[in-house]
Design brief:
2 strands, SDA1_N, mainly alpha, 1% strand
């Protein structure tokens, strides 16, 4: 034994002192530690025999001491024995034995046994202070690496599911989430451990889905499943578990009969993109604010160290600002990649979306009115329609179900209409959409409905037809292979013109919705409108034969769209460059005859300073030639090459073919040939996008088409196309594929009434703004007038105008006005009757 231990033997040691000595000299104080270990074992045995009795006051301190010392000084068998003792105290003898038996196997990647829904009576009756001390001790040992993570996972989940202690459950939840985050931090993920934990979570959620029934009370397994789903959602949002296994667990939870478990998973799928985008934006804002705020030490002593620190912070801010601006510009210009990239789309990672939506839809249809709340049913319908629209699934029983909820007085009917819109896509048969359109027309677009209902109905019809344009195909368009017309019970033309008549409605919101419908039909199928309603764009597209594709019809692409226009643009540019080069060659050849002998002729009016220039000729030296600007190098061409050059410039041979005179078949052939023989760059794709957009705009606008035709005749077809590839779009919102918001189909003209909370918030905002006086400078004239003395302002014009004139003053002015009019009543004599 060491000298420190022999000196400490003279007086009894406190546990804090013994912990310090064991840390310094573990071998010297091993006997004292063993004595405290035997004491803990005896106290735990006594507590298990009588859990209702009050625990010893020193037991909590002894538990913390054993956990801290065993995990640091005596890690190994001693720490495992202490952890097993604490788990036996928490969850009982049978559970701790099973967990200790599998702890060694877990290290070799064995699975965790299923969660037990009950605890022994001694564990349930344990005092809350002792339970809290045991949990904190096990967490301390896990943080020091003395206990493997899988060994604690089952015990902690069992405690969360059974023990009715809210604070304890919150601490267990945060520990499990932070432990998994620490395992996968800094980009180093333990896939083997993650797979084992995720399989344990999946078995808990699957057990809850198999055992629970719709409308029943929550069991301990259901509560554990809710906690597992919440953990996975939190880890997915923090970019720890954003893989297919996590999405599969949440999909299993979404199909659970338990309303609490299913609603948590459904809200995750519907809102995860906005939540992750908001977190990213907040983190970037906080990071920039921390860099932007620099303490310049304006009111403190100036030292060299402070000055160096300020300069370093300014350089760092400038560097971050340049990187930030470069990132913003890159995201704005790169429309092909960044604009289409989404934040870990969970719905697109579903393994079997068709089976999942069929299960949920079947549950919604078969459940009674008291099985699920209306909010839960709305969540299910929102999720089903979002998945159907995102994956373009065929789910025919969905559309008759949506028609049942489309009553005029239905609760949250605007959300139902939005779900109907987002459930539509191009592969839905038009016969299914006809029923929805008829229901909306009968329940919303009638004169007995309110103005807002009619506007919402017209906007919903327009959005549905925009997603399924095949419903607008008429009988003339629907023909079979032999050219025979296919009969249809839906009079599209009458329906379209009926809605177009609302563009001239007296209510502003209805007229806005009607004009939106007319503009949409002008773009898609202008032949359905009357000639007076087609407008300039509709007339141009009607002349071009614009119509929507029939159901099942596909226009196969023969190459990259705009490749033929790019070839024509490059040929025109090359032709102009060759023409300019030929002109420069001709002008240079004219001056060669005079400059061959090295003499330059001067005009008579020019002054010559030397005697040599008296005859009008000046000799040029070689040194003066070299001091002037160098002329461009000219390549002498032979007769054959000059003839070929002239033919290329004139557009008769070579690459300078007149592309404007090619037919559609020749254009398509050239487009296919150019697409198969070239590799396009990002700038060329941007150029093709511009050319195609201009061509589409010319189809819509006859004036622009005529202008373009005149430019083609003059050879100036591509003069208005710039070489810059920048795009001025500043749309920074988060767009989720397949999502439709309620505000997208609501009426636009009417001002919405604010709620009481919104009114109070506006009042407080104005009050704070007025009290803080955010404007620069002194007080305003209004504030000065309000603070002015009353004796100075009571005879002012504003005060007299507010109070009004006195009666005598009014009479006086009235008499003066009557005199000006000609004397008043005396000017007209009364006539008496005789």
């Amino acid at each position: 034994m060491s000298e420190t231990a022999s000196c400490a033997r003279s007086a009894p040691l406190k546990l804090s002192q013994l912990q310090n000595f064991c840390k310094r000299d573990p071998a010297g104080y091993k006997d004292d530690y063993d004595a405290q270990s035997r004491r803990l074992t005896s106290l735990v045995g006594i507590l298990l025999l009588s859990p209702n009795a009050d625990p010893s006051p020193s037991l909590v301190e002894l538990i913390q001491f054993m956990a801290a010392v065993s995990s640091s000084s005596y890690k190994g068998e001693e720490s495992d024995r202490v952890a097993a003792l604490l788990m036996e105290l928490l969850v009982g003898t049978s559970n701790s034995a099973s967990s200790s038996a599998t702890s060694a196997a877990n290290e070799s990647a064995a699975t965790i046994p299923l969660l037990q829904s009950t605890l022994p009576l001694a564990a349930l009756q344990l005092h809350r202070d002792i339970r809290k001390a045991c949990v904190s001790a096990l967490i301390l040992m896990r943080n020091k690496g003395a206990v493997p993570p899988l060994r604690l996972l089952q015990s902690f989940f069992q405690l969360m599911a059974v023990v009715p202690d809210k604070n304890l459950r919150e601490s267990l939840y945060h520990h499990i989430v932070n432990d998994i985050r620490n395992i996968n931090k800094n980009g180093k993920k333990d896939e083997k451990l993650n797979r084992t934990i995720q399989s344990f979570f999946h078995r808990i959620v699957a057990a809850s889905a198999n055992e629970s029934t719709a409308g029943a009370e929550d069991s301990p397994t259901d509560y554990a499943a809710k906690r597992a789903v919440q953990m996975i959602c939190d880890l997915y949002r923090r970019n720890v578990w954003n893989d297919e296994r996590s999405v599969h667990i949440l999909a299993t939870a979404a199909a659970s009969p338990n309303a609490s478990v299913a609603s948590r998973a459904l809200r995750f799928f519907l809102n995860i993109e906005e939540a992750m985008a908001l977190d990213k934006q907040n983190s970037e804002t906080n990071e920039w604010e921390g860099i932007d705020n620099i303490n310049l030490h304006l009111h403190s002593k100036k030292t060299k160290g402070k000055q160096r620190l300020i300069e370093k912070q300014i350089r760092n801010r400038k560097k971050k600002q340049n990187a930030r601006e470069h990132g913003i510009i890159a995201n704005r210009e790169d429309k092909g990649v960044e604009a289409s990239k989404k934040l870990f789309p969970a719905i697109e990672l579903l393994h079997d979306p068709q089976g999942l939506v069929e299960t949920i839809l079947k549950r919604v249809k078969s459940s009674g009115s008291n099985t699920y709340k209306f909010e839960v049913k709305m969540l299910m319908l929102n999720f089903v329609t979002r998945v159907v629209g995102n994956h373009e699934l065929i789910l025919l029983p969905l559309y008759p179900l949506l028609q049942r909820y489309m009553g005029g007085h239905q609760r949250d009917v605007t959300a139902i209409l939005a779900y109907s819109v987002q459930s539509c896509h191009q592969y839905v048969p038009p016969e299914e959409i006809y029923g929805i359109l008829k229901t909306i027309a009968h329940n919303f677009i009638t004169e007995r409905c309110s103005e807002e209902q009619m506007a919402v109905g017209i906007n919903a019809v327009r959005s549905i037809c925009a997603r399924v344009p095949s419903v607008l195909s008429t009988e003339e368009d629907e023909t079979d292979g032999d050219g025979r017309e296919i009969s249809s019970s839906w009079d599209v033309e009458a329906f379209t013109r009926d809605l177009a008549g609302y563009a001239k409605h007296k209510d502003r919101s209805i007229s806005i919705a009607g004009r939106g419908w007319v503009n949409f039909i002008r773009e898609v199928h202008p032949s359905l409108l009357q000639g007076k309603d087609r407008g300039l764009v509709g007339a141009g597209l009607h002349k071009a034969g614009e119509r929507p594709l029939r159901y099942g019809e596909v226009r196969a692409a023969l190459g990259v769209e705009g490749a033929d226009l790019l070839a024509a643009y490059e040929a025109s540019k090359k032709r102009k460059e060759k023409g300019g080069k030929k002109n420069s060659v001709g002008s240079d050849s004219e001056g060669d005859d005079d400059s061959e002998s090295g003499w330059v002729e001067m005009n008579d009016g020019e002054e010559g300073g030397d005697d040599e220039s008296e005859s009008g000729w000046v000799e040029m030296n070689d040194e003066e030639d070299e001091s002037d600007e160098e002329a461009p190098d000219l390549v002498l061409l032979g007769d054959d090459e000059e003839g070929k050059e002239e033919e290329d410039v004139d557009g008769e041979k070579g690459d300078t073919v007149d592309y404007s005179k090619l037919s559609k078949k020749e254009r398509a052939k050239m487009q296919q040939e150019v697409s198969s023989t070239r590799i396009f760059t990002a700038s060329e794709f941007a150029k093709m996008h511009k050319l195609v957009a201009r061509q589409q705009q010319a189809r819509r606008d006859p004036r622009l088409a005529a202008k373009l035709k005149r430019a083609i005749a003059k050879g100036e077809e591509f003069d208005d196309i710039s070489d810059s590839d920048s795009d001025d779009s500043d749309d920074e919102d988060i767009h989720i594929k397949g999502a439709v918001n309620n505000t997208d189909i609501m009426a636009d003209a009417k001002r919405k009434r604010m709620s009481k909370a919104e009114k109070l918030e506006k009042i407080i905002e104005g009050r704070v703004k007025f009290e803080t006086n955010e404007r620069a400078g002194g007080s305003t004239n209004t504030e000065k007038k309000r603070k002015k003395n009353f004796a100075m302002s009571k005879y002012s014009f504003d005060a007299r105008k507010k109070v009004g004139e006195k009666t005598t003053a009014k009479m006086g002015r009235k008499q003066e006005r009557s005199k000006l009019d000609g004397g008043g009543r005396d000017a007209k004599k009364r006539r008496r009757k005789f």
